[in-house]
C-alpha cells in the first residue's frame, strides 16, 4: 500500500504532468500550460526526428554490444577467479560510478584531447602523430559504454556467481573444448543476467544527451539532445513533452517485445 | 489471493484521488492557462543592509573567487550556503517552483523577465556603501535596457563573444565571422553550443539583427550555419577545454574564457589570439538580484555591497578573467587584457545594438526550431 502510494505520488504524478503538457502550448511569456491540442504530436512527423531516432538507436545498440564485450570477461574473471578479492574487485568497479557521470565525461576529454595525455604519449612513441579521438561518433559511443557498462557487469556477475561451477566441469566432460563449454553451458546459464544488463544499458544510452554534448561532433546529435533542447533554450516544454511521450511509447513497445522474447527463452533454457 | 481484491479497489481509489489532487495542485504551479497579464505592480520592497541570517547563494558553479566568499563569511559571521545552476532555464525553473535563495545571478534578459513577473526585490542603492562604484554619474548602469533605473539588479560581469584562434596552426585570419569557415582550420573549428550566440554570429554575417525571428532571415541563417558544418569539429560551449586541449584551432568563444586560456592555461601565450569580428560582436552582461521570496534579503544586500568593494572586484576579475564594471577595479581587467586588445572591454561597449533581448515565446521557438535543424542535419 505504502509503496504504491509512493509510486503514485512521485512517479505517476510527474509522468502525468508530462503527458498533460504534451497536449499544451507555451504562453507568450514563456510559461508552458496544459491544453488539449494534438499539434505537438503532429509536429513530430518530421524526417529529421526520425533520422535522429535511428541514429540514437544505432548508438545505443553499439553501446550494448560493446558493453557485453567489456563486461562479460570482467564479470567472469571476478566471479570465477576473484577468490577472496571478489568484493573488493566489485567495489573497485562500482566506486568510480559514484562520481558524477558529467565529471567522468570531462575526464575523458582531458585524457583524449588532441594535445592530451594519450596523444602526447602516442607522439612520444613515434608510432603516430596523434589521433583525433574526440568529437566523433566513436567518442560518443565510448562515453556511453563507459557511462553505463557497470549496469551490464553487475547483473552478469550476479548470474555467474549464482551459477554452479560444477556445470562447467560437467560441460568440459561432455563437450571437451573450453570454448564450446563456454558457449553451450556458461552463456545459457547467465542468459537472464545478460538480458537484464542489455536492457539496463540500452535504455539510458538511448535517451542520453551528455555524451553527445560533451564528446560529440557536428553530426552526432541524439534524440536526448533534441528533447533536452526543448526544455532548455528552445523554451518549448510542450513539444519536449510530446517527444518524451512518443519516445516512451516506442520504448514500451520495444520492451514488451523484448521481454516476451527473452523470458520465454530464459524459461526454455532453465 | 481473494483478500487482495478490496485493497486493489482502495489502491485505484487512492490513485484517482492522488491524481486529482495533483491536477488541482498544478493550478498553483502555473501550468493552467491564465488570462491575467502581469501588471506593472510596485516592486517588492528593498531590504535594509543588515545581517538577517546565513546567505543562500545561487550561482553558476565556480563563478566567483572562493576567497571572496570566504572573506564575506569571516567579515559578517554568517555562512554561505551554495547552490548551483547549469543554465538560465534551470535557474528560473527552480525559483519559479518556489525554492528560496537570497541571491541569484541572472543574465540581463532574465533580469527583465523576472522583474516583469515580480520575482525580484527592489535594491535600494542608498543601502549600498559602494553604490558609487557602479552607479557613478554617466554610468551605463544607471539605466540599463534590461532593468529601468537598475531597480532590481546590480551589474555583475560583462562579456563579449568573438573568435579565438591558435596562431601556431592558422596563418591568416581576416577579422570577420567568416573565419569560422576557414579552410585551414577545417575539422578544428567549434561553434558555441548556444542558440543565441550561434544564430547571432550568422545574423551578423548576413547583416541582420542578432535577435531576429523573421522567417526569411532565419531561413538564410539556417542555410549559412549548415554550410559551416563541414568545417566543424563540433558544437560546444566548453571553449576553455577545447582550446587548451588542442582540439580547437579556431573557436567561437567568450572573451573571458579566451583570456583564461591564454593567461592561465597556455604553455605559450603567443600561440593564442582573439578577434572581435568587424561585423559586430554580441556584448552582454549578467547581474546580481535578490529573489522576491528570499528569506535573508538583508544579508544579500550586505553581500552585494561586499562584491562591489573594489578590492573584492579585483580578486574576482583575476579569478574569472571577466570584467566587473566596478569603477576602481576596471584597470585590473584592462591590465589582464593588455596583450589582446580585442578581448578588452569597456562598460561603454554595452551601448551597442547586439545584446540578447527578451523575446516572446513564439519567437524563441521559431529560433529554436532553426537551431535544432542546424544541429540535427
Any overview of this molecule?
The complex is a heterodimer of chains A (about 270) and B (about 375). Chain A has about 270 residues and is mainly alpha-helical. Chain A is about 75% helix and about 0% strand. Chain A is built from 14 helices and two strands, in the order H-E-E-H-H-H-H-H-H-H-H-H-H-H-H-H. Chain A has helices spanning about 1-20, 40, 45-80, 85-95, 100-110, 115-125, 135-150, 150-160, 165-175, 180-190, 190-205, 210-215, 225-230, 235-270; strands at about 25, 30-35. A two-stranded antiparallel ribbon of chain A has the order 1-2. In chain A, a hairpin with a 5-residue loop joins strand 1 and strand 2 (about 30-35). The model of chain A has no long low-confidence stretch (mean pLDDT about 90). Chain B is α/β, with parallel strands linked by helices and about 375 residues long. Chain B has two domains: about 55-160 and about 285-350, Periplasmic binding protein-like II (D-Maltodextrin-Binding Protein, domain 2, 3-Layer(aba) Sandwich); about 160-285 and about 355-375, Periplasmic binding protein-like II (D-Maltodextrin-Binding Protein, domain 2). Chain B contains twelve helices and nine strands. In chain B, the strands form two sheets. In chain B, strands 4, 5, 6, 7, 8 and 9 form a six-stranded mixed beta sheet that branches. In chain B, helix 5 packs across helix 6 (about 215-230) and helix 6 runs parallel beside helix 12 (about 360-375). Chain B is globular and about 60 Å long. Mean pLDDT of chain B is about 90; it is low at about 1-30. Classes of the chains: A mainly alpha (about 270), B alpha/beta (about 375). Chains A and B meet through helix 1, strand 2, helix 3, helix 5 and helix 13 of A and helix 1, strand 6 and helix 12 of B.
Amino acid at each position: 500500500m505504502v509503496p504504491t502510494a509512493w509510486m503514485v505520488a512521485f512517479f505517476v504524478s510527474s509522468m502525468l504532468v508530462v503527458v498533460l503538457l504534451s497536449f499544451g502550448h507555451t504562453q507568450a511569456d514563456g510559461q508552458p500550460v496544459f491544453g488539449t491540442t494534438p499539434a505537438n504530436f503532429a509536429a513530430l512527423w518530421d524526417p529529421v526526428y526520425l533520422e535522429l531516432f535511428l541514429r540514437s538507436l544505432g548508438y545505443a545498440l553499439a553501446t550494448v554490444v560493446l558493453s557485453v564485450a567489456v563486461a562479460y570477461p570482467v564479470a567472469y574473471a571476478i566471479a570465477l577467479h576473484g577468490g577472496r578479492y571478489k568484493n573488493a574487485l566489485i567495489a573497485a568497479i562500482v566506486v568510480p560510478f559514484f562520481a558524477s557521470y558529467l565529471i567522468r565525461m570531462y575526464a575523458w576529454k582531458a585524457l583524449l584531447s588532441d594535445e592530451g595525455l594519450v596523444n602526447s604519449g602516442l607522439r612520444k612513441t613515434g608510432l603516430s602523430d596523434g589521433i583525433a579521438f574526440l568529437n566523433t561518433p566513436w567518442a560518443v559511443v565510448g562515453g556511453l559504454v563507459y557511462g553505463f557498462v557497470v549496469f551490464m557487469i553487475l547483473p552478469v556477475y550476479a548470474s555467474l556467481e549464482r551459477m554452479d561451477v560444477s556445470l562447467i566441469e560437467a560441460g568440459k566432460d561432455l563437450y571437451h573444448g573450453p570454448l564450446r563449454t563456454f558457449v553451450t553451458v556458461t552463456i545459457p546459464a547467465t542468459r537472464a543476467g545478460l538480458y537484464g544488463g542489455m536492457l539496463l544499458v540500452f535504455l539510458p544510452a538511448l535517451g542520453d544527451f551528455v555524451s553527445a554534448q560533451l564528446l560529440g561532433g557536428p553530426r552526432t546529435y541524439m534524440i536526448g539532445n533534441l528533447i533536452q533542447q526543448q526544455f532548455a533554450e528552445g523554451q518549448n516544454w510542450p513539444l519536449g513533452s510530446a517527444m518524451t511521450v512518443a519516445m516512451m511509447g516506442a520504448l514500451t513497445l520495444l520492451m514488451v517485445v523484448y521481454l516476451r522474447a527473452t523470458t520465454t527463452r530464459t524459461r526454455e533454457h532453465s | 489471493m481473494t483478500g487482495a481484491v478490496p485493497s486493489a479497489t482502495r489502491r485505484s481509489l487512492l490513485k484517482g484521488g492522488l491524481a486529482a489532487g495533483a491536477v488541482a495542485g498544478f493550478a498553483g504551479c502555473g501550468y493552467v492557462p491564465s488570462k491575467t497579464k502581469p501588471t506593472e505592480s510596485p516592486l517588492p520592497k528593498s531590504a535594509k543592509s543588515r545581517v538577517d541570517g546565513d546567505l543562500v547563494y545561487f550561482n553558476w558553479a565556480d563563478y566567483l573567487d572562493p576567497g571572496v566568499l570566504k572573506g564575506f563569511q569571516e567579515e559578517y559571521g554568517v555562512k554561505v550556503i551554495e547552490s548551483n545552476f547549469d543554465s538560465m532555464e534551470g535557474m528560473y525553473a527552480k525559483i519559479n517552483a518556489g525554492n528560496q535563495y537570497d541571491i541569484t545571478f541572472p543574465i540581463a534578459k532574465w533580469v527583465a523577465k523576472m522583474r516583469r513577473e515580480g520575482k525580484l526585490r527592489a535594491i535600494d542603492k542608498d543601502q549600498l556603501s559602494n553604490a558609487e562604484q557602479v552607479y557613478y554619474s554617466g554610468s551605463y548602469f544607471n539605466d540599463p535596457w534590461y532593468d529601468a533605473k537598475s531597480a532590481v539588479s546590480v551589474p555583475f560581469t560583462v562579456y563579449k563573444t568573438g573568435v579565438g584562434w591558435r596562431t601556431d596552426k592558422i596563418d591568416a585570419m581576416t577579422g570577420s565571422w567568416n573565419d569560422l569557415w576557414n579552410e585551414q582550420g577545417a575539422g578544428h573549428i567549434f561553434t558555441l553550443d548556444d542558440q543565441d550566440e550561434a544564430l547571432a554570429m550568422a545574423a551578423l554575417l548576413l547583416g541582420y539583427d542578432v535577435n531576429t525571428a523573421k522567417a526569411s532571415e532565419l531561413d538564410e541563417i539556417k542555410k549559412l550555419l549548415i554550410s559551416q558544418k563541414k568545417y566543424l569539429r563540433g558544437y560546444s560551449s566548453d571553449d576553455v577545454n577545447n582550446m587548451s586541449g588542442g582540439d580547437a584551432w579556431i573557436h567561437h568563444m567568450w572573451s573571458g574564457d579566451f583570456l583564461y586560456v591564454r593567461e592561465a592555461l597556455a604553455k605559450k601565450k603567443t600561440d593564442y589570439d582573439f578577434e572581435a569580428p568587424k561585423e559586430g560582436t554580441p556584448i552582454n552582461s549578467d547581474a546580481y538580484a535578490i529573489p522576491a521570496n528570499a528569506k535573508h534579503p538583508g544579508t544579500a544586500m550586505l553581500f552585494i555591497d561586499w562584491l562591489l568593494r573594489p578590492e573584492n572586484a579585483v580578486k574576482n576579475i583575476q579569478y574569472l578573467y571577466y570584467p566587473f564594471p566596478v569603477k576602481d577595479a576596471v584597470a585590473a581587467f584592462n591590465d589582464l587584457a593588455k596583450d589582446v586588445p580585442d578581448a578588452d572591454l569597456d562598460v561603454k561597449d554595452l551601448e551597442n545594438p547586439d545584446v540578447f533581448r527578451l523575446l516572446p515565446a513564439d519567437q524563441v521557438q521559431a529560433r529554436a526550431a532553426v537551431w535544432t535543424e542546424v544541429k540535427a542535419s
